[in-house]
Design goal:
The protein is mostly beta strands. It has one domain. 9% of the residues lie in helices and 42% in strands. The protein contains five helices and nine strands; from the N terminus they run E-H-E-E-E-E-E-E-E-H-E-H-H-H. The strands form two sheets. Strands 1, 2, 3, 4, 7, 8 and 9 form a seven-stranded antiparallel beta sheet that branches. Strands 5-6 form a two-stranded antiparallel sheet. A hairpin with a 6-residue loop joins strand 2 (57-74) and strand 3.
């Protein structure tokens, strides 16, 4: 096997000073997207559902991403490409008014959204064995990884765009859904979906970045953040026009450098320095 002797390298333009060999997750493909999630049904516990049934009006307060379940499967007859199926779980907090000029009651519920994208993840034919260090114990042997790339999803805090109440007779049919137990435990009980009663629909705006990566050994210099340059392939064909005009919040995904924060002028200048 050929040996590689790595020496520090001075570069004329000052981009980097040395090349290093690292074992890291290489991003083979990624996409960034913003979705307007219209009329997501909010599921409540039995106690909170009784509060919704007595409501005459609601006002949205906030929404938070609880978790994202990801599943990666190879795309048939398309070597190297994989479909990433994602299920988003949101905790939605609203103020519920049961009478005019009354104090609101604040409750939380669950909203869900499914999304699929197709990305390139390359191919591999090896099994990877590794262990984790345990203090005062034998190293724990991890299970060998599957021959699939790892999917990573980054989500910014959702923007609550609207919320509305709907009488049971006015709502579209909504089949009962199976909600994982670990999600239900966050709300302190089962979340219903089949019991007749008023239904709350909420519209959210979310920004996401989805990546497919594999662990490889690379000799690399360091330049800058790798911001996706294309949009995700989404099944939604009816986005909100207002939400489309909101710029992608790059700084929330890629925090500024220390020198960017030392600028005396406020607000800070865009990434790249004070000048």
């Amino acid at each position: 096997m050929t040996e590689h002797n790595l020496q520090p390298a001075e570069v004329a333009n000052g981009c980097f000073k040395e090349a290093v060999c690292i074992d890291a997750g290489r991003i083979y493909d990624s996409c960034g997207d913003k979705d307007c999630l219209e009329d997501l049904r909010v599921y409540f516990t039995e106690c909170n559902q009784r509060v919704i049934d007595q409501a005459i009006n609601v006002r949205s307060r906030s929404a938070e991403v609880i978790s994202v379940f990801l599943d990666v499967e190879a795309v048939p007859f398309n070597r190297g490409f994989y479909s990433v199926d994602m299920t988003f779980f949101f905790e939605v907090t609203v103020d519920v008014y049961s009478a005019p000029n009354s104090c609101p009651c604040t409750i939380s519920g669950l909203a869900m959204f499914d999304k699929k994208v197709i990305l390139y993840g390359s191919e591999g034919s090896v099994k990877i064995f590794s262990s984790d260090y345990c203090d005062d114990e034998n190293d724990y042997q991890n299970r060998p990884t599957r021959n699939l790339p790892k999917a990573v999803c980054q989500v910014a805090d959702p923007i609550v765009l609207s919320a509305r109440l709907c009488e049971p007779c006015d709502c579209r049919p909504d089949p009962c859904c199976c909600i994982p137990n670990n999600i239900c435990s966050r709300f302190g009980g089962d979340l219903g979906g089949c019991t007749p009663g008023k239904i709350l629909y909420i519209t959210l705006g979310i920004f996401t970045i989805v990546q497919l990566e594999r662990n490889v050994q690379m000799l690399i210099p360091v330049y800058d953040f790798c911001v996706p340059s294309k949009e995700c392939v989404s099944s939604s064909d009816n986005p909100c026009e207002l939400f489309r005009r909101i710029q992608f919040p790059t700084d929330q995904f890629f925090p500024p450098r220390a020198e960017d924060l030392n600028c005396d002028d406020k607000p800070p200048y865009p990434r790249g320095g004070c000048c």
